[in-house]
Amino acid sequence: MTSTVHHPDHHPLTVGFDLDMTLIDSRPGIAAAFRVLVAETGVPIDIDLVVSRLGPPLETELAHWFPAAEVPAAAVLYRAAYPDHAIDPSTALAGARESVAAVQALGGRAIVVTAKNEVHAKLHLSHLGIEPDTVIGSLWAEAKGEALREQGAQVYVGDHTGDVRGARVAAALSVGVTTGPCDAAELRTAGADVVLEDLTGFPAWLTAFEADRAA
């Protein structure tokens, strides 16, 4: 059976967004959850270092601090603490609500594709009043691309070089924002098609993009 190829010019607008450090500043919340983990396990963790390199899956970060055999149990403890400690301190980044709304105002679908587990991602979005059409969790880098391709996304917006790689797998246009750990040069070197300082300029960029696509 031949799979259907989604050509960006022939499908309704679908835009994917990463979550952490793209739509939300989750550093205060993640730091709080890690403090609980330190208190419960007694394992010393450099939390400032942790929140400086958000992007990859939780287990990747935990492997820097715990023996491999202990990572799954540490992840369980962390995720159990997350709803009570990480949601309230985290904030929406500038332009986040407006960017999701801009996609929908153009008749498109805004989807969130994130390495964070789906339950916690939805808690963040609901708490902050950000309302995408779909949330897909527990995916990183190239695996994000598979989901983006299945959703027919023409654009993926993220702050990490892993997000650029995901966009490439999906044959989607990669929009990088420098609100996370990767600067403009890193994002461009990784292959980002567009680099924005933050999401405040995204609605105007998207309007022009959609006009060109419809022309």
From TrEMBL:
<dbReference type="InterPro" id="IPR023198">
    <property type="entry name" value="PGP-like_dom2"/>
</dbReference>
<dbReference type="InterPro" id="IPR023214">
    <property type="entry name" value="HAD_sf"/>
</dbReference>
<dbReference type="InterPro" id="IPR041492">
    <property type="entry name" value="HAD_2"/>
</dbReference>
<protein>
    <submittedName>
        <fullName>Haloacid dehalogenase-like hydrolase</fullName>
    </submittedName>
</protein>
<dbReference type="Pfam" id="PF13419">
    <property type="entry name" value="HAD_2"/>
</dbReference>
<dbReference type="InterPro" id="IPR036412">
    <property type="entry name" value="HAD-like_sf"/>
</dbReference>
<dbReference type="InterPro" id="IPR050155">
    <property type="entry name" value="HAD-like_hydrolase_sf"/>
</dbReference>
